[in-house]
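Task: complex structure prediction.
Instruction: return structure tokens for all chains below.
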Amino acid sequence: MPELPEVETIRRGLAERLTGRRISGVRVLMDKIARPDPAAFAAAVTGRTIRGLTRRGKVLVWRLDKGLIAGHLKMTGRFDFVDPGTQPEKHTHVVFEFEGRPFELHYNDLRQFGWLHALPDDGLDRVSFWNQLGPDALDVSPDRFRERFQGRRGRLKPLLLSQNLVAGLGNIYVDESLHRAGIHPMTTADSLCEADIDRLHGAMTEVLSEAVELGGSSISDYRNAEGKLGYFQTKHRVYGKSGQVCPVCGREIERIKLGGRSTCYCPGCQPAPKED
DNA sequence: AGTTCCCTGAGG
DNA sequence: CCTCAGGGAACT
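Output:
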């Protein structure tokens, strides 16, 4: 489940090895992963040199000398550097080869929800997902954050998950940010005062930047591009910890369903909002 | 605003 | 066998 800190960690790993490198060949093993279609993807990408990688929310963008690749890992997407000629694994869907054969890069995705989209330089704005993407969660000012949430009637958990308000948070970092801010996930945004929203922004910024520093959270099978684990999961206070004791106040962490997502919170640190 | 679907593997 | 996990699109 790569969210912002994991995608950022992967971005750094890819940038280190790929910047300045020329793609000599691409093999698409699962058609639906490569957009707009496998042939167009391979044609657009083959022979191109990678200038660098950027990120907005959970979307990775490879900047090429001509055109770009936008990619989304969804929950189980992974990039693996492997020796040239390595047999693709069961769930390897795209293989990149590079000039001089220093290594191959295998895109692996067990659930096949992720995608890689080859686009012309000005093409990102034509992808609806990009158009609707809010500002990056690590790049949004307190003022802008306040503007985006103030007065909204929805509950905070689904609002924070929706990428068009702020981009990059998933289930882990929403639960962790709300706990650090001391705000119950069912609270509606319009019931927060300015100071509450600022505190939420601060908590989110802290959680995300600490997670980036530790290389993200390795729960289930997340690895960075070098196959290494992240360590932020050791700092989780509520995510995946229902029934355990809150490290801050000692109350038992509870789990509810909200917007179809399992949601963990501490009833001590995050008191329930007044009834609707 | 809530539900369903996409997909596979893990766990009951 | 069933249910759950999850990001986001596409419904209702």
